[in-house]
Amino acid sequence: MGILEKFSLKGKIAIVTGGAGLYGRCIVEGLAEAGAYVYIASRNVKSCNKLAEELKDKGYSVSGAELDQTDTESIIRLKDRVIAEQGKIDILVNNAVLRPMKGPDGPIEDFELSMKVNATGVVNITRIIAEEMKKKKSGVIINISSIYGVLGIDPYLYEGTDMGLWAPDYAFHRAGIINITRYYASLLGPYNIRVNCISPGGLFTNQHPKFVERYNRKTFLGRMANTEDIKGVVVFLASDASSYITGENIMMDGGLSAK
Asked: Considering the entire predicted model, what is its pTM?
């Protein structure tokens, strides 16, 4: 097999949670462009189906799917649907994230709510899908974290802007997903299931100009991330090109964390 063939995902079946969001869309596109059949899963089925139709028009193999990550039965229904339609699940991308807390002093009930998706939900869907992967002794799980799972927040970036400081639930579960990646890499390795994590840096979404200028100065590449940046990393980790990589957290941050 040539090196370019190792990057191909032809014949692979993937599930992307939160697949119609900013990063989710490009994760779905990247996997589909590499040849995978991708299920775009979230609570917002309308958005998933809309994206699926757009990508089908481009010739890609995708489907929208309903998923409430707080509900075990919803996860099982999604798993059962994919198995019934495709006979297997090769790739799971845990990208869904719920962010009800809006700042450091947000209601503690919002912290608890976020954990239902971002902590309990991630573990639940990982366990359920991994059981299917174990049956064929192969699979790839990719978790999406953030630089704020590794680094502390720099308040200077936000001074003089209309942007509030990030909430504590986000830092808590983004750090947790990095270490749960290592846990499952160890647990599932004997079944030839690889588990890795990607920690993107700040995504440009037309933030306050002061924030963008300061953030850009902190990175080696002089810019914030764009949605396209994640495609190559996801395809690499999902493909045979990374067949001896597991338990890793890739910092996709333009060099910010390397300073």
From this structure: 0.96
Task: Just list the catalytic residues.
Answer: 170
pLDDT, one tens digit per residue, over 124-167 is 999 999 999 999 999 999 999 999 999 998 989 999 998 887 89
Tokens of 84: 């019934």
- Write down the residue that tokens 């699940």 correspond to: 89
Measured CA distances, 63 to 36, 128, 157 (Å): 11, 20, 39
User: What mean pLDDT, rounded, does the chain reach?
Assistant: 96
pLDDT of residue 166: 81
Domain boundaries, the chain: 3-156+167-206+227-254
Cα separation, 166 vs 150, in Å, equals 14
What are the distances in angstroms from CA 188 to CA 12, 15, 117, 136, 210? Answer: 19, 18, 22, 12, 44
Report the CATH architecture of 3-156+167-206+227-254.
3-Layer(aba) Sandwich (3.40)
